[in-house]
Amino acid sequence: MPPSTDLLFMPATEAAARIRRRQLSPVEYLDAVLAHAETQQPRLNPFMTVCAERAREEARAAERAVMAGDRLGPLHGVPVHVKDLFATAGIRTTHGSAIFADNVPDHDDVLVTRLRAAGAVVFAKSTTPEFGHKGMTDGPSFGITRNPWDLGRNAGGSSGGAAAAVAAGIGPLGLGTDGAGSIRIPAAYCGVVGLKPTTGAVPFQGSVDAFSSYAAAGPIARTVSDAALMQSILVGPDPCDPWTLAAPDFGRLTPKWLGRDLAGLRIGYFPRMANRLVARDVEANTLAALAAYQARGAVVEEVADAIDWIEKPGRAMYQGNIAVAFGKYVEQWGDRMDPVLLAFIEWGKAYTLADFRSAQYARTRLFRSIQRLFERYDVLMSPTLTRTALPVDFDAAHGQVEVDGQPNGITREGMSPYAYPFNLTGHPAVSVPSGWASDGLPTSLQIVGPWWSDLDMLRLAAVLEEDRPWADRRPPLA
């Protein structure tokens, strides 16, 4: 008998509370998730590795702790999955690549350590394109991760496995990474919540350049409360991440945004960034979401400032870094590497040192432009993406993104122009569902705040969740 969908789609906050009250067995909960994973893996392909027996041992230990009356963490007994870029002791960490197909670390990443300390049961490693290099989740080492709302569409990337699994009820929480939208893109594709935290809010040990990083780790969840709970576990300093060492206390919210009344909240709205077009359905749902904030008293103003979104300089940094980091593998492994990654490596090699440094200067100018906006606005909002999910066979290296049948450029400008700038500036950005398009797929709103305002952005996301709920909608499971 298949597990109850009510159990599979139960928020992590509720599941943890039921476990603490001895109303839900961690073992039975995990067994239900594992059974569901077994049926959905052939359809969606969200996992590189499922460590069922190890997870069952952890669930049994969690149940013994409950029955013994031990002190329990906030995620005690809750199944979670982590992206296959995070080190996991004794569990394969492949980085989505044949190069690391047999890599079994002897240690946990600090964020995995924190999740385990909170009582979470890590049961799987979610798929990622090779080294997390693109906004779609597919590759020669594992195939295609499909969108649970439409199997002919991609799940987004690079945290596509995490978003697809959460959307399909295969665990309530996924740990992802975001280097140019890699949490927010799949969250938008799959109709879930994804937070890219402020740079330094959450340690990111996976960065090979801690000082110039634009990548972040963060939660993917079906509800804002679940994302906030997971974020509260992930935050905090780590001696190996210099950006975290000066991070403030994350236990505070701005008092004026705690109630239903948002009078005085100043929202700056971006209808476009580096893109020429945005889909009609996406725009309509974005405006409807903004209207929900206005109904609570917020003031919405379209941002008229001419901002250089540095799409091409941003590409120079991104592809230049990829060329240096992964070009060393091409001679031995090139015939088994993702063709898109190989293209990025070749393009990255063509940039000069002057190109790279000029791009870094442009990054500083972009940061300062956004900082000046926060002198006028409390929060910035935009669509998360220009359209709903791309087809599974889309060419992420050379393909032209179509929006309402019209060409809109390659992926960074054509599909995710709203996402990558805030990796470069470091501001917190959360993607939340804004509605559904005529093709039956979800659309999404992006909410961006000043540095260290992560909780305030989640609070504003919760306002939209209350006024325009989404978590009760479930994709087809067969």
Walk me through this protein's architecture.
With 478 residues, the protein is an alpha+beta fold. It has a single domain (5-260, 273-282, 382-467), classed as Amidase signature (AS) enzymes (Alpha-Beta Complex), CATH 3.90.1300.10. It is 36% helix and 15% strand. The chain is built from 16 helices and 17 strands. The strands form four sheets. An eleven-stranded mixed β-sheet has the order 1-3-2-8-10-9-16-17-13-11-12. Helix 8 runs antiparallel to helix 16 (454-467), helix 10 packs across helix 12 and helix 10 crosses helix 13 (353-373). The longest helix has 21 residues, at 353-373. It is globular and about 60 Å long.
Topology:
Layout: H1 5-8, H2 12-20, H3 26-44, E1 47-50, H4 52-68, E2 79-83, H5 110-117, E3 121-126, E4 138-139, E5 143-144, E6 146-147, E7 150-154, H6 160-167, E8 173-178, H7 184-190, E9 193-196, E10 216-221, H8 224-234, E11 266-269, H9 280-295, E12 299-302, H10 311-326, H11 330-333, H12 339-349, H13 353-373, E13 379-383, E14 402-403, E15 406-407, H14 411-414, H15 421-425, E16 429-436, E17 442-448, H16 454-467
Parallel strand pairs: 2-3, 2-8, 11-12, 11-13
Antiparallel strand pairs: 1-3, 4-5, 6-7, 8-10, 9-10, 9-16, 13-17, 14-15, 16-17
Helix pairs in contact: 3-4, 6-7, 8-16, 10-12, 10-13
